[in-house]
Structures are given as structure tokens and as C-alpha cells.
Predict the 3D structure of the following.
Amino acid sequence: MRKIKIIDQTLRDAHQSLWATRMTTAQMYPILDQINRAGYDAVDLMAMAHFDSCVRYLREDPWERIRLVRDKLDVPIGGWMRSNNLIGFEAAPDDLVELFVDKMVDNGINRITAYDGLLDNSNIIDTLKQTKKLGAQAVAAFVYCDSPIHTDELYVERISKLLKEVKVDAVMLKDAGGLLTPDRVRTLIPAIKKTIGDLSLEVHSHCSTGLAPLVYLESVKHGADAIHTGVAPLANGCAMPAVQTLTKNLRDMNYQLNIDNQMISEIEDHIRMVAKTEGFPEGTAMEYDAFHYKHQIPGGMLTNMYFQLEQAGIRDRYEEVLNEISTIREELAWPIMVTPFSQLVGTQAVLNVIHGERYKFVPDELKKYALGYYGELIAPIEQNILDKIIENGSKDIPLQRQPLVDVVPQLRKQYPNATDEERLLRFMIKGNHVNEMKKAGPINTGYNMTNDSISTIIKSIIDQKKFGYIQINSSALKLKLGAMK
């Protein structure tokens, strides 16, 4: 009986997909014991979006979050690195990326997944090598795309080249757009598995087209060793499949899993209470949408784009923008629709539709993409489109990217009394956000499930500590709380 490993995404990608990365440490802290005992082979916790959200919106120190979770979990804790940058589109200096990886491991991340949206291995090899050097697990993720040039042969070639340069613990097929189909995995999974041999093959997909649960089952049948799931209600929708359903199906198919259903049930109950208390949505099954394969825009970005068009008074041109996205993808050599490339394509499509002339206005980031600033393109851009981008884009952008200079010495000089962790946050997140985060103080790990007025009154009275007892009377209830000192 073959064992299938389960990687949990409840604390990372699940709430990023469904709750806009707004899960607080206090909301996850009460279930860390259950997560630790649930039978997971790894628990992913952080990516760049989580560092940003912790500081900018939650006023939490993300490094403190890592340490708090580290102290509660025995299973490997995962962090993700996108290409050779941190937050934003631009590549970060090598010394900064190296320091970031070092501090991730120092604070408790012992499994790092690195991926690049252009499948340019040179953007992730250094991170993977450093991860191994620091004694953490290194996972090389290859982003899936549905296009004429993203063939099985391309993935085999890129994976083979990477494995010749760096030793990793696992290879992952990362399907951020939920584009994989059961038919495709029947050829792609065996091809990758043949290439990597005894290395663990992980599959990470989203339910955006409704196919991910079937894709997982088919992937396992054809050689996948691990799948990424969330605990419903932090599953389905545009998140990943639910561990509850997949566990049942895989066991029915005679695969062995270490998942403890009782622990999962307790985690589920807590998440449902958090969702109800905070007004957060619960993931629901998505219907199949064939048009999704044409534009391939992630679900969260579609929502934002629709809102922006509504604000601009052109909501009625939404379908036109989606069709323009499909055209631009082909013209730009089929970029994989993950950050930052989905944003680049979506922005250009909106500009083309609004102004009525294609590529009349070109954002700086799109010109940099076309010039190879973010990595080597898999195929050439159509020449007439490339000419328009270069001509209409900013003349301040050199045709070749200039070498990046080290910044860590300057950061240490600029913030002499700060830790390296704080210096990294100040580089990544501009403005006053880090100061506001520090002003908020240490993370509160206690979460109050009830925000109603009665519980607030009771808490206020208890905090005063000067009453002998509290008595609440109503026509249907008499409650007396005493012996308070």
C-alpha cells in the first residue's frame, strides 16, 4: 500500500486565496496543537504576501509569527520564495535574498519552496543551494501553464537541467491557476516522475476550474507522492482541494495516509467559528468554466479587475478586457499567469481597451518583462509587438538591465539599532508600516470567538476585578458567576 504525503496549506495559501491573506496569528494559534497531530508531512506558513499582509494590514511582526508557530509544531514548516525578488516586481540584490533565506531558517522555517514564473532556473538555483547549505528542505517548484509552448517536454527539460545543478528534496508541479486537467496529468506526471526518479513529486493545484480534486486523484494514480490541501472551509473556491474529501477518496483507493480525522474535525470546527465571527467567506465548489483557460487570470485578480473597471465606469467592457488578455498572452510569448505576470498582462489589457489603441501606453514593468529584466523568456515576443513596447515604453528604461549592487551594508548603516529581520521588512515594505507594526506591540495569541455586546460587557466587568459575583437575569435564564478575586 503506497503512502501519500499531505502538505497543509491552511495557514498559507488557503487563507491567501479565500481571506485575502488576513488570517491573524491569534486565529491560527488555538489549532496549532491539532495541526501538529493531524498527520501532515509539512505545514506551509509564509510567502511574500504574508510578510506584506502581516505588516501592512494586521500590524503583526511576521518573524514573530514564524517563531510562535515554530514553538508549537514538530513537522516541517514551509516558506515560499518567488524568483529572485522579495515583495514587488523587481529583482532584489543577491545579498538581500541571501539574508532573507538565512533569516527564514533562523526563525523557524525549515522547508523552502522556490519557483519562477518564467521557468528560468537561474532565478531560483542560488536560493535552493543556500537552503540546502543551511540544513533545510529545498523544494523546486515548476509553475504549470496551459499554452502551446508549455509542453511535457519543456517541463522535463527544465527540471532535468535544474537537478544537474542543485540537489533538492522534492520537485513540485505548481498549478496556481487551477489549469491542470486529468487528461494532462496522465502524460505530464509520469514524464516528470521518470525524470526525477526517487525524489518526491508534489502537486499543488487550486479549484478555480473545479477540476483540482480529480486532478489530485489522477496525479496520485500516475506517480505523484504528495498533494497540497486545505481544511474546509478554507478549501475549494479558488483555494486548493479539501483534505477531508481527498483523505476519504484516497483511502477508498487503497492508499495509505497519516491523516487523523479527529484532529482535522477539530481544526474544521475552529475555522468555521472564525469565519462566522469575522464574516469571512467559506470555500465552496466551483463550476467548470472553459473560458478560464483562455485568459487564465487568477480568481482574486479577476475580482479586483472587475471592481477597478466598475470604478472607472466601464464595467460593461469586462468581457472585452478578458478577450484582450487572451490575445496579449499569445503576443507576449505565453507568460504564466502568476504574480507579477498576470498583473502585467491584465493592466495592459485594460489600457488597450480604455484608450482604443493597443500598446499606446506601456507600463514600465511590461517593458522590463519584454527586455528580459525578470528572466529569459521561453519564446520570442512577436516582433511588431516588441517594437511597439520598446517605442511607447519609458525611454528611461535601459535596453539591458544594469547589475544590482549589494544593499545589506547600507541597510545596516541606515538602521544601526535594528535587527536584520527588521531591516529586511523596512526594505520590503515602504512607508510608516513597520513603525506602526512595532507600535502595536507583541502578537496577541488569544482569540475571542464572541464579539457580541454581552460578552464585551462581561469581559469589561471581569477586568475590573472588584466584584464578588456577576448575576444575569432574563425571563428564560438566570446566570450567576461568582468567586472572583
